[in-house]
Amino acid sequence: MSVTLAADLSTDPRTTAVLGAVPHSDPRVVAQLLSRAAAVAAQVSMTTPSDRSRWLEAVADALLLNQEELAVLADQETALGLPRLRSEIAGAARSARFYASVAVDGMYLGASSETVNDSTTLSRWNIPIGPVAVFGASNFPFGFGVFGHDVASAIAAGCPVVVKAHPAHPRLSVRLAQLAVDALATAGAPEGAFALVVGFDAGLQIVDAPEICAIAFTGSQGGGMALLERAARRGVPVFAEMGTVNPVFVTRDAVRTAEQVDSIANGFVASFTLGAGQFCTKPGLLLAPAGVGMRAAVSGAVTLVEPAPLLTPGIAGHFAAGIVELEAASQAAAETVDAGAGTSAQTGSWASARLVSVDLHDLHPGSRLLEECFGPVALLCEYDDADAAVRALTHLQGSLVASVFIGEGEGEGDEAVKLVAQLSARAGRVTVNAWPTGVANTWSQQHGGPWPAASRADATSVGAGALDRFVRPVALQNARPEMLPGALLPDNPWNIPRRIDGVLTVPLPRAAHPKVNK
Amino acid sequence: MSVTLAADLSTDPRTTAVLGAVPHSDPRVVAQLLSRAAAVAAQVSMTTPSDRSRWLEAVADALLLNQEELAVLADQETALGLPRLRSEIAGAARSARFYASVAVDGMYLGASSETVNDSTTLSRWNIPIGPVAVFGASNFPFGFGVFGHDVASAIAAGCPVVVKAHPAHPRLSVRLAQLAVDALATAGAPEGAFALVVGFDAGLQIVDAPEICAIAFTGSQGGGMALLERAARRGVPVFAEMGTVNPVFVTRDAVRTAEQVDSIANGFVASFTLGAGQFCTKPGLLLAPAGVGMRAAVSGAVTLVEPAPLLTPGIAGHFAAGIVELEAASQAAAETVDAGAGTSAQTGSWASARLVSVDLHDLHPGSRLLEECFGPVALLCEYDDADAAVRALTHLQGSLVASVFIGEGEGEGDEAVKLVAQLSARAGRVTVNAWPTGVANTWSQQHGGPWPAASRADATSVGAGALDRFVRPVALQNARPEMLPGALLPDNPWNIPRRIDGVLTVPLPRAAHPKVNK
Fold this sequence. Notes:
Two copies of one chain form a homodimer. The first copy, chain A, is of the alpha/beta class.
């Protein structure tokens, strides 16, 4: 007789103590929630961006009102620390408001209309795609959690959402869902516009459900690929942000002085160990010129990093196994610095930072070194020949973000421009003299990247473009006025940008037009 | 020993006579073309929209200059008739110019930039995705042929293209490719920005090639699904426009008079037999109120339709088999009108128009009646209960286009609005008192639809949005000015719409700003 675990266990990563249990959703309840989401989809899609803005503002208020309670609860389940978690809650509140403002701006509606000829008119705009299933991430319990980027942008776009609770923080998930349900109801959102389900089987059920019209996922390549394969059977779009190794290229001009070397070494270590290295934007590989002492500088900085608990025992186990794999993949040159080598063994999911030094020729296509290892580890590769190092970049998988550090030196301009263009062809974002961790939620953000960093290179899960995932265009031919949405009524009641008879028109200035959400 | 056919045979559908043979591409040649496309991709991506506009204008000129020769050649291989083919060539030329104007307009670039805070700037715009493989359709040898919508919009967006010749019109494909290569070279496009390959194996080779960054396909569900499955292995986006049954719903108010019944009956038959029923926008199902004589009127109109040759013997065979399947799927009520029943058997790929009358209860989920049957056949379903008929619509697969015919009668407004909203949720385009065949190429066109009518409900293969398939966003953080494209230089040299610090700005009026391409 096989026994199925009927609950997600809430576990303290610092001690592996079990703090509680959240029962899995009954399949019949999941079916009801799906039916309700489908039934309410038309009603949600007919609301105005301003209506949905009010809903999102209410959730943002609720997040801030309960900030301390949520941070404490999240810290119990993630060990990410109160300061980081408080800040992440504030960020989630800002994001909800930002997506509200993007909806109200109305550009995402892609509204256009024209008279084609005497007998034909066409009107086109983006309609909400329908109920969206969201699978959040372990490493951002708020940013990519129960009311994070995916959920807020889907609701902003006019879609009901069914979220699966992440097993790494189930009690937090339930509490966030309660707050969201209450805030949405108070703000006038129809019942069923938001729902939470718990458990692996419930996750499969929502992936397979015909009611679900799009799936957003943030997590590992393994999880994302399994989801993609399963969802492909019924053609439902999957927006999976999976992540790979994010490279950093340091030119010789960037490290002319010892101070520059130290600054980059310290910045690199701070960036790849941020949040115990559990960022999908973690810089996983530093390519730096040989002969400037970069290895010593980075190694020195790594030894100063305090051990930190990883999110779950499972992640800690994968991290330990990953280190072994990385060392094996770098047969000749691997030299690992272990920040915790001198300390006694920790209980729970604790891990110490690691640096694995590799040779350029180890970075060949298909090498394990070019696959992500989640946690506080990065590769350092010192190069003699800059051209060979640039060529090695082309062996990397598509990535979410790539970084270059360049000097102010004369003559480097052209090379740096070329390097940025090359990296742009292989990443969703390229940072110049800046570390990749830290993703501002603004109009111009891009968080996604070429396969297999993400399933859809044209999509972003952060920034104004996040709404675009959850709409699709529809054209009405010879529509009567009463069939048109507010987006296309003659007097432009929503005050949005539109293209009328081929000419783009911008709205009147708004009293409080949001420029950039920092 | 197995023998592989080493050439595509050029065949006259009217007689099945073989007119010539076009040898399949050698795999080594295909590999060279792919390498060349990849090598030239960066150069093509750095050209300005105006550069590419000149290339497209040159191809448009070449199409018109050779219009008669191309029409004759196409007619030999497709039997679609000279008037239709001349018109399709003119349409392809207009489309090339329209996509050029969309590129120059620059909205598709999604250019935006902002100062996030004292240490961070972000710039985001859409970059060309890279070399695109195009698989055209048998039924539109120009519109979806070697220089049709997919090819022109991909080049407009800055991508090299590798086209596979359609085996139904191989000699035309080769001739079109010659014209395109010459015109592009004369207009200054780099060699390798366009290439043609011939043969099934060459098709597989370009699908699997790592150089290919996106695939556009127009054709059957079977072909599209096979392509999707194969391409999923490496995560390359596939924009497959496959088509299903496009429904037409006639309300009781729309057929209050015998004239209205006749008008709809005649319009329906003209639309579903246009081009021998070989349109992906063919209205495949008419739902009309019982008791107004619709069946007699439609049957009468069908009997007047002249037999016509289908595109290939294979299509003719599938059509004949499809009729048998449709009749079998409609166990109780099937009654088929065969326009050619009284005529003697035709040679070649000739087929006569058919109408299959079915009952509402036959239209259940999974029925063969709800799958496309390519060719001059449609279903007629007379309903007693309008609500039941509307419910039956929800059993249909997602479709490219759905149509409603409504009256001017008072009180119908609300119902009609509801009906249009319901159809919008299941189709890419909804026409009101207009037949679905005929797709204007304008800013507001949408030619695509929910799965499985298309692989990507967010995509269109006709209209300004066609370019969006072939770009992806990239963000630069803290870019130096010399790293930015013209799209984002401070003085806006390309004169395009941009969002700067959150505020959308529109360009100065152009001397000859294209409004709508009719």
